[in-house]
Amino acid sequence: MSTRTPAHRVSLSTALQDGLAPDGGLYVPERFPTLGPEAFAGCTTIEAVAERLLRPFAEGDGLADVLPGICEAMFGFPVPLREIGRGTSVLELFHGPTAAFKDVGARFLADSLARLNEGAAQPLTILVATSGDTGAAVAAAFWKKPNVEVVVLYPKGKVSDRQEQQLTGWSDNVQTVAVRGVFDDCQTLVKEAFQDEAWQERLRLSSANSINIGRLLPQMTYYAYASLRHWRAHGTRPNVIVPSGNLGNGLACLYARECGLPIGEVVFATNENRPVTHYLETGEYEAFETQETLATAMDVGNPSNMERLRHHYSGSGGAEALHDAIGAERVTDEQIERHVRQGPEAWDTVWDPHTATAVEAREHLDPDDEHEWILVATAHPAKFPEVVEPLVGHAVDVPEPLAEVMARSHPVPEVDPTLSAVADVVFEDRRPDATEHA
Ligand SMILES: *Cc1c(COP(=O)(O)O)cnc(C)c1O
User: Gene3D superfamilies from the xrefs (predicted)?
Assistant: First the structure.
């Protein structure tokens, strides 16, 4: 249902295809199933946990029959929960193709949309504006999937070299366009395309941004799987710290707890951007101007999932209930730098700048090591060598899947920030007689 009109109820398939509700609200589950640890008896792999967890959400939907196949294909890489001492474990969500947690949501959405569009006369075209990491995850997930294609717009010269290599390693049904402008120009172009008649006529457009519930729900699997492993090994509920920006990953953790999984406290670690901590402190939501920090993927002044969070806790005791349900810790760049620098010695781990916010929250909240914590590692440190390498004093090896993506990088068309310039390359590529890209 929509956050703004509870009576507006749609199937899971419709929510995935539409992204945003027609009233401008965000889709949220109407209710949550009750799935305690006993409901997962016999579910030992993460794929089995995903299927058990997501099944109730697909009940009665066209996706129900194909859900096992989608869950089976969603990972294809490990999700280690690594104990690092002092009652602390790290949940490594960075073993996918683009080395950050967004791979799983993007892969679930890609597979679902490919299956939902089987037999369609025309493929669905996903249009994405990216400042770096989301576009890479979406491109990787949709690459070579049938019935769907992707156009990625990124601001030329405004992403790091390594990010650019992750955005330009695609072909076939994934087209990347470098825009001579900033991220906001790319976002404006996407909005214009959605409102443009020629685009609407030529293509069936859709989006895959982080407000799509199809990216959020599968991320619950991370928290189900990790908390079950902890519960089975120790019989206790771990607290979880989630590095957060738009709150999609953090909300997935709350939703998993809502389903009955054995999760204790949930803490959102943020960088210096204050909307989340301000909201939890005061109970009043206020958007802030976005501040640039070392944890760039969390530079969000007005988190899109705040609407889901507020909806979830509306009318259930106000600020106090919210305060009891969630913690939040705001972390400075100086603290991020300190934890990246000290990581190898203090925790025998090289942290990426985003995960470093969780480390600060962990040490600040529990200096005496009295509780059990899961720190969520959202990205591999090799994604951010400019920040990490000078602090740890050595090069960080690029994991194999990411190295493969980057090795495929090739020049892409560069255009002025106008819709007609983008249309020239996008439509040129789709002329009936246009030859396939190599
Ligand atoms: C996207 C991202 C985040 C923030 O996740 P949200 O779901 O937007 O809160 C944190 N770390 C990394 C590495 C990311 O890519």
Answer: 3.40.50.1100, Threonine synthase, N-terminal domain
